[in-house]
């Protein structure tokens, strides 16, 4: 879309408000932590020390609301440690203007690179830059700087202690992630009743897998009803698809289709009951009529012998296991209920450095974002100091909190930050002008503001920006100074920082649009490996083949999610790729979805007995792997892919088959794969 339309889209997205809030009890707990630290520091050391302490507690509390499955106390302590270090290092360099700008630029660069470890790390690192530019204006000596850093760290400790000893809905995020996976599977079962080839979004399963990664201590404390449930819902997806697909499952119409719809409806109700049970922690049994629907009909089997009946039997078995697990959760110490290992902090360091090293290239949006942050924040800080206005820290603070690695978030958050900050500063200053509150009253108003910000954190960045701005105004007003005269200076500095951040992105952008061919090629290659692994599992059944199938499935989901994210972000960008039109990308993703469905049909019936092996599948798997790898490289180079070897291999396999028996499932799936990849070639030609 053109720039004007892109900016209009960003404006609407940034100012949109959602009807979503955080847990009121969690918001109240975090605001109590701010109040304890703020008023304690105010009584001991005065308004300046209280300002630092409250900022540390507020940002540490904000970290506990980020989307992460690390323990909440760990997030608060990590944020507090980063904030304290940033403040102390910034103060040491503050007397030397050029040295301070260099330190600020390097710190902003590191905060930008932290996005390589995920959004939570990037957001917390951005907070440390904001704390540096605000708090370095307060101390007047090194001991005082150390004291400010200490109270900031104390704010994080208080927030961590409150989270630990005043729990609010323990394991709530893990429960929500797993419940969302079951709810999405229930929705998938319902859609399959009406559309046997309905698509499925694997993102809830990916999130549930991420939530299931635990440290050894978490594994010991995990509720029993969360153990083993993820594995059950993961195994249901290919079985549901195999039952509904008329090519290998129930017939397209007649009694078989009616029976399949009945089973799918029962599966949806049981999965919904499972989602409610997991979310609340209290068993919600499925109705008896639903369980009765799983039994054989009075007239005997309706589904004909073959993959369809096997899929129905497997589905009934999985649903029975799910229902049993909800009524009597497995023992949390049962060794069969394993968990994904989450690395400790020391184990995480090599992973973090490896992630940064992989992004150490000019093609990486993370490195470009880090350079942008470094240059813009340092330049904005220098300009804010040079202008004959006060409160110069508002400009770099705004610039750092606005910038993100992609266009859509930078501009939508930039608009929200600018408008929210202007309104927040205006409201806060108006209160100061009209009421002239005492320092302790300013502290109370600050706590109320930050409590509302915690509560409305999910409502939109516009509301949060406004409330945080009000909070900062009240906080910085506790020293009794008449700050209302500087409202235009604050607003001007905010507009300056935000505008230069948006301009910096426009001058040196990182477009997701130009990365679409690379993302598409990654999914083509991942789809080929996934399908080849499924074929290999038929050629040589065994644990090793199933493990490889699982590994390639996860890689395929990751590649699919990356392409979907890039495609969504590119829709708001004011550029278009000359070699890949949006309509082409849509059709290409549809063709790749067809390859995923065909592979799922194979996965649903993977043999475990070597006697059921199909040795001919090995040759097709090898051709599949080589052809898709070459096609992916062609897509990266902007050339049309060639999938003709797949059609040739399928025809050869079909000709070599002897007898009048129905073709084996791998052969039928090979035909579907060849057809889907041929459709992809036509799309990209």
From TrEMBL:
Family in the record: Belongs to the YccS/YhfK family.
Residues in Integral membrane bound transporter domain copies: 382-503
Protein name: FUSC family protein
Topological relation to the membrane, as annotated: Multi-pass membrane protein
Main location: membrane
Record carries keyword Membrane: yes
Sorted UniProt keywords: Cell membrane, Membrane, Transmembrane, Transmembrane helix
Region Disordered: start-end pairs: 565-584
Presence of the UniProt keyword Iron-sulfur in the record: no
Organism: Streptacidiphilus monticola
TM region(s), chain numbering: 26-45, 74-92, 98-115, 122-140, 146-166, 414-432, 464-484
Pfam families: FUSC_2
Lineage: Bacteria, Bacillati, Actinomycetota, Actinomycetes, Kitasatosporales
Subcellular location field: Cell membrane
